[in-house]
Amino acid sequence: MSWEEFKDEKTCPCHKGTYTITRQANDWGQSRVSFEMNCTPCQNTYVQFTSRYHDPGAPGGTSSFDLWVLKIDKQALDNAEKQIRRKKDAILSTAQERYLKEWLGRFGGKTKKSVWAELKSIDRSHVPSLGTFYIHTKNGTLEDYLRTWFDADRIIPILAFLGIQDSEIAEGNAEVSEQSQNREALKRQMLSRAVHI
């Protein structure tokens, strides 16, 4: 399988140099693209960033576009995402320690169909069709699936389902929401100052 390569040079963000776009395609319809900044001042200031967005008409429901973003903006966004990840990990660790056993016990002895129905009642958008659920739980055990499903993004509805109120976890979740709003503000700022490729 051979790749055909096409290179294109464009004017960089500071207009004093260039950057190179390399597009590659093969006989199987696969393609890839890469970007190389040739301008030293822009190399020190910008980094390439791919922004993805929901697009129902696109294959997989997602489209993307490429930008040159300021390195300081990208670093601020990365730092915000790390903070959110750390907080979610801490919430999940606390929740698993306190409530995972109770969560797993809630489904003991139940059929896969009744487990599926209860999961749907907790978070409809993240439970597949019944047939797909059977496929996902075919090779592994149902307990493995339930352990994976017990995650930081669903912890509040899971605790509500179990009839549990945990103020520490609720406060942590509120912090994550606030941090997520901050991350979105940082992302909007980064995109507003970006240069389209």
From the structure above, extract its key features:
197 residues; alpha+beta; three-stranded antiparallel beta sheet; 7 helices; 52% helix; 23% strand; flat
Task: Please write out the topology.
Layout: E1 3-11, E2 18-26, E3 31-37, H1 40-45, E4 46-54, E5 62-70, H2 71-106, H3 112-122, H4 130-136, H5 142-149, H6 155-162, H7 167-192, E6 195-196
Antiparallel strand pairs: 1-2, 2-3, 4-5, 5-6
Helix pairs in contact: 2-6, 2-7
Helix content estimate: 40-55%
Major β-sheet, in short?
3 strands, antiparallel
Unreliable spans are: none
What percent strand?
15-25%
Helix/strand order, N-terminal first: EEEHEEHHHHHHE
Give an overview in words.
The chain has helices spanning 40-45, 71-106, 112-122, 130-136, 142-149, 155-162, 167-192; strands spanning 3-11, 18-26, 31-37, 46-54, 62-70, 195-196. With 197 residues, the chain is α+β, with helices and mostly antiparallel strands. It has two domains: 3-71, no CATH class; 76-185, no CATH class. Strands 1-2-3 form a three-stranded antiparallel β-sheet. Helix 2 packs parallel to helix 6. The longest helix has 36 residues, at 71-106. The protein is flat.
